[in-house]
Amino acid sequence: MNKERLLELGVLAGASCAGIAGVNALENKFALRHNRLEFSESNFYHWKNFNIYYTRKGFGKPVILLHDLKPDSSAHEWSNLIDRLAEHHRVYAFDLLGCGRSDKPEITYTNFYYVEILLSFIKSQVCEKTFVVASGYSSVIALMAAAYDSSKFSGVCFINPPSIGSMARVPNWHTIFAMRMMQIPVLGDAIYNIHYSRAAIDNRFSEELFYNPFHVSTELIETCLESAHIGKGRGRFLEASKAGRYLNMNVKHALKTIKIPAFILAGAALEDEVHIANSWKKCAPLIAIEAISQSKYYPHYENARETAAKLLAILDQK
pLDDT averaged over consecutive 10-residue blocks of the chain (318 residues)? Predict the structure, then answer.
């Protein structure tokens, strides 16, 4: 009787897993049906065993744009800004490793991967000092890369960087458990698909990320959804690494030693971000801070005109 009961439970468990796997597959297929993220095979930068997608526009002094480090982000984050900058500069925009059209390896992601990718790209593709504009979490990538090898940078601009305190938090058993859960096949896919469903993405932009929820377009939501689900949901390994705090870096030393011109653009509607910007400036007094009106986390998307004007003014100083 016990054996029969165990067999029944095994069959039920197997059927449940198969059902969840089927739902996960349908979710990924649904997310990709609009084909918002076009790509060309010639636009991949080959770094070690990975392919990093990037675009290039314009002529002049080089600028690299780094989108926020989230699975649903991509170079599309800069779509309202890039043409304005490209009128005067040679502009590169990445899909970072684990995001969008770039490879999404099943690894534990760390800040050093991205630092090495950025420095390698500047050395082999740009071939001269570059100004880097980084959004959100990617501000730490740009900061650490500039602190490690300032000779490759003409300057950096951080858009709504994370707090010093949050980046100083190290992995513990709670965060490692969360990371392992996300990495488990089927279960991790299900958790990831809930977090990066269309409804969840739409809600985050409307309720948290944008100053004006009416600026949240269907195109933006569909592009973010597609970015998160290209590669059959393997963006969950980046999300798992963030949850585990393996991408965190204590930025205080880097801020105190940075040797190049540095700027912060903050969404004016984010009171916390103004305090965060001032805490960065406390460590690096020469950082210049500007606020972008009528914007929150993505001023370069929501108020691209003002963001472009401030960036061009900064770049003209170089």
Answer: 48 43 50 72 89 95 97 95 96 96 96 96 95 97 96 97 95 95 89 92 95 93 93 92 96 94 95 92 95 96 96 87
Strands 90-95 and 288-292: unpaired
Domain count, the chain: 1
pLDDT digits (tens, 9 = 90+) for 35-81: 778 877 779 999 999 999 999 999 999 999 999 999 999 999 999 99
Alpha-carbon distance of 94 to 292, in angstroms, equals: 23
Rg of the chain's alpha carbons, rounded to an integer?
20
The answer as to whether 88 is a domain residue is yes
* The token pair that represents 132 in the structure block: 């880097």
The model's pTM is 0.90
Which residue range forms the structural domain that includes residue 140? 41-316
Query: Helices (DSSP H) in 155-235: which residue ranges?
Result: 164-167, 173-183, 187-195, 198-204, 218-229
Determine the Cα–Cα distance for residues 16 and 14; give it in Å rounded to an integer. 5
CATH of residue 178 = 3.40.50.1820
Q: Strand locations in 176-233, DSSP E?
A: none
In a domain, 31, yes or no: no
Q: Which two tokens stand for residue 162?
A: 């994370």
